[in-house]
Design goal:
Blueprint: H1 17-27, H2 33-62, H3 70-86, H4 89-97, H5 99-102, H6 105-118, H7 124-160
Helix pairs in contact: 2-3, 3-6, 6-7
Length: 161
């Protein structure tokens, strides 16, 4: 009869969590924080500059005021972001720029569109609709609750003063 021999750890050394993390950290790529910050800054700034150019275009060519030009500007930025997400271009921008592409409204539109595209095989309602609002749902709820609280505070402030 063959008996099983007990297996000993390699090098007769127990691998602890701390030792594993030390070993794994040797092989992790080093992050260049300065370069990543510069990339995020210039890409995020370029997105905002493009938004400002769009807003000026809506003001000068379409007769919007400064106050009313913001809505079509944001809608155009969202549309372009979703379009670039559909073509797979925005993912490359996100890989390059990091938070610079995620912070503006275009990053939020990208995350919603990417979730919808990823789950389209599950159907329109359960796939696209259900998974698209997993991320957006919490943001929308927070926005509605924050607006409600701000409205109450503003109303109370006007009543008191």
């Amino acid at each position: 009869m063959a008996t099983k021999a007990k297996s000993k750890p390699i090098g007769s050394m127990q691998m602890t969590k701390q030792l594993y993390q030390q070993q794994a950290s040797k092989y992790q790529p080093k992050r260049n924080v300065l370069l990543n910050s510069i990339r995020a800054f210039w890409v995020g700034g370029a997105i905002c500059l493009f938004g400002q150019i769009l807003q000026n275009m809506y003001i000068h060519f379409f007769g919007f005021t400064e106050k009313t030009a913001s809505n079509p500007t944001v809608a155009t930025l969202i549309f372009i972001s979703v379009l670039l997400t559909g073509f797979g271009v925005y993912d490359n921008i996100g890989q390059y720029a990091g938070a610079g592409s995620a912070v503006p409204v275009t990053g939020f539109a990208n995350s919603i569109a990417a979730a919808a595209i990823e789950h389209r095989s599950e159907g329109l309602v359960l796939g696209v609709g259900g998974n698209m609002f997993k991320l957006a749902g919490s943001v929308i709820v927070f926005g509605v609750v924050a607006a409600f609280i701000a409205g109450i505070i503003k109303t109370l402030f006007k009543m008191i003063f």
